[in-house]
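Moderator note: this is an archived Q&A kept for reference. The question asked for a predicted structure of one protein chain; the sequence and the answer are reproduced below.
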Amino acid sequence: MKHPGGKSVPVTRLFPDSIRAADAVKACRKLAAKQKEAVEEYGVSVTYLALGLASWGGHIDATTGHDLVGECKANSKKPVPNAPIFLRSVSIERKGGHNESWTIKLAEDMQLNGVLTHVLKAEGALIDEDALLSIFNNQVDNETVLADAYEALSVACADVRGFKATPANIIGTFTYQKQPMVNDVTDINALMASDLVAALAGNAKA
């Protein structure tokens, strides 16, 4: 399936085969239900198109250059990550009428998975989020530009063992509401400057 750019596209156009279209309609029904639940409970959208999957933690044979990530998955009890790289918000809407019909529309904005960058930086990656996103330069639907962004991320993750960026288009629900909280508690300078933290630590002057 090729993602439909910034236009609203009927699911049947993306999946002309009747069997695959039926499966896609079922998936849309489930995604719409999860999206409605997230908006009602948390006030946020959780449905995205994930562009690219990042994996790491495997091994590269220094002699042959052979990628052993797949073998690592098969032989190790520790799972190898397979995380979305870029995210674009998706609107899934059911159209009225006798037949069940769904449309998919992508937002124009491109996001970098903040949880992924947080983890990769802890693994030694040197990621500049703004520089990476600037590669797109308002060309979020350009496959060549997307490939350049994957390559730039791979360069930034040169010190992350077994890092690999694999092209992929996957629509699903991804929830990262807790990441801003993680960012806050790992910002040591901000914590040291916080009167609230100082008071919790027993500073009577705070």
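Archived answer notes: The radius of gyration is 21 Å.
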